[in-house]
Amino acid sequence: MNDNVKKFMNISIWLTAIFLLIRCLFSWVDIKNIWETGNFFTLCYNFYGYIGEAICASAIIMFIFNKCAWKWKLISWMHDTPILAKNYAGTFISTYDSNRQERSGNIIINQTFLNISVQLITNESKSRSLIASLTNVQGVIYLIYTYQNDPRAEIQDRSPMHYGTAMLDVSNPMVLEGNYFTGRETRGSMKFNAM
User: Fold this and answer.
1) Residue 1's Cα: distance from chain center in Å?
2) CA 191 to chain centroid
3) Architecture of domain 87-194
4) Residue 111 has what pLDDT?
């Protein structure tokens, strides 16, 4: 389980507990009256309903948090998850080219609090992440993803479809820089800047 999932679950549990407490405080007079009459079945039934209300309210808020609220400046202090830009432009070099030709491309990132996906588009191919995550390695946050690269049809004889893994330093969310490795036993470096 990655760190963001743990954080999300902790926030959800605390939020549900707070909503349940608030709901019980609003209904304190009713709870007290039911307790005094000794109607414990009604008390349990009402409490069960309060739990459902708290879970429902928490689910709605956490849905909004996951999609967009986690990026808001007012809320982002609660976590250390880097907020990455949507689009990056940059270059990469590969050992696949004997002359180590520098190529350019664009990275498109779709990110929620719980999920992240990466797409790299060049003149020759498109790569899509199969799995991706933000990982803290000895105090440095990396975007690590495994991808499938699909070259354009006319160049597949010299550049077949392949899989690879990239590890990019995202300490500065405006610059993605790191290395990648492929199933073709090639490797390279890449650097992309936010557009």
Assistant:
1) 13
2) 21
3) Beta Barrel (2.40)
4) 95
Pick the closest to residue 130 from 120, 140, 139, 138 (CA basis).
120
Closest to 129 measured CA to CA, from 143, 119, 142: 119
pLDDT in tens, 39-77: 888 888 888 999 999 999 999 999 999 999 999 988 888
Cβ-contact 188, 180 below 8 angstroms = yes
Domain residue ranges of the chain, discontinuous segments joined by +:
3-76, 87-194
DSSP assignment letter at 174: T
Give strand ranges (E) for the chain: 87-94, 102-111, 116-121, 125-137, 140-151, 162-169, 175-182, 187-194
CA distance 103 to 93: 6
pLDDT in tens, 107-156: 999 999 999 999 999 998 999 999 999 998 898 999 999 999 999 988 88
Residue 94 pairs in a beta bridge with: 188
* Distance, CA of 65 to CA of 79 (rounded, Å): 12
The answer, yes or no, to whether residue 1 has pLDDT greater than 70, is no
The single-letter DSSP state of residue 39 is -
